[in-house]
Structure formats: structure tokens, C-alpha cells
Amino acid sequence: MVELPHFDSDGHARMVDVGAKPITHRVAVASGIVKMQPRTLKLIQDRQIQKGDVLELARIAGVMATKRTSDLIPLCHPLRIDSVDIEFQIEDDQTIKIVASVSANERTGVEMEAMTAVTAAGLTIYDMCKSVDRAMQISDVRLDEKSGGKSGQFRRNGLQS
Questions:
Q1: Which of 12, 63, 87, 156 is the most exposed place for a label (fewest CB within 10 A)?
Q2: Is the pTM higher than 0.85?
């Protein structure tokens, strides 16, 4: 049977004790997709959305969400984040890929912070553009890679050590 560290032997939820773990440099990269009508993406690129510069506000939302992850995810530890980088890649005429990189020198990983950054950035894009395109979709939020800590390196392409 797989042990789930967020539950005690009686099945009660608990925050994992990381006090004895060594502080190591932790990095996580996550990504997600926002699909929209080509006209919507053009409006974003031309900075013609009435609410403002969509991608810059989405970047700020992602950074802010990263710092608040432990307030949103019940058993996450509050972390001192060292850096957050959020990039937007135009994949085609209707797709924006969001990539968030988060790092910290901590006792536990920053995977949840990276995925929270992607999600908040995607939701901000949706919120700012919903008046012109309610059919937008946020999808494929995932961890692409992580390093640091006892579990070592993970890369989505299958390389894991």
C-alpha cells in the first residue's frame, strides 16, 4: 500500500513535518495552455483589450499567487520564494502557453507554487478577455521539471533520477 504523507495512521489530514529535512536549492517549472479565438489572441497581442495589458497583468497575478500558495492549498508549507519567472509563448494563432519557473532554498519543494502561478496567470487571461471570448479554455497545467530535495530530478520527458 502506498503511504500518503499528508495523512496519519488514523487517516487524519496533517501537515508533513519537514523540520529535520536539510535546506536545499529547489526549482520547479510548470506550464499550461490557454486556448482562445484567433481574434482574442490578436487583441491581446495588440494590447487592445479594454482592461489593459493582459499578459503583464497575468504575469503579476502569477507572481502574487506563487507567494500565496500556502493560503490556497491546505497542507502546503509557507515558503520563502527566491524567484519567480513567468513567460508567455504564442504557440499558434489561438494558443498561449504559460511557463512558470519558481526557485527557493527550502526544506520542501516548489512544485505547487509553480503550478499555482500558471493557474493564476491563466485565470487572469480569462478574466481580462471574457467580455470578448467566453469560450476560452485553460488546460494542461502540469509540472514539467523539478530539482532539489530527496526525490531528486524530475523531467516530464521521462528522465527521472
A1: 12
A2: yes
Residue 54 CA to residue 47 CA, distance in Å, equals 7
Residues of the chain with pLDDT under 70: 1-5, 158-161
Q: Which residues are catalytic?
A: 127
pLDDT tens per residue, range 41-60: 999 999 999 999 999 999 99
Q: Torsion-angle region of residue 69: left (phi > 0), alpha (psi -120 to 50) or beta?
A: alpha
How far CA 12 is from CA of 4, 7, 102, 140, in Å, comes to 11, 5, 30, 30
Q: CB burial class (10 A; 0-12, 13-18, 19+) of residue 117?
A: buried
**Residues linked to residue 155 through DSSP beta bridges, in sequence order:** 145
Q: Residue 32 burial by CB count (10 A; 0-12/13-18/19+): exposed, middle or buried?
A: buried
Give the domain ranges of the chain.
Answer: 24-149
Burial of 82 (0-12, 13-18, 19+ CB in 10 A): middle
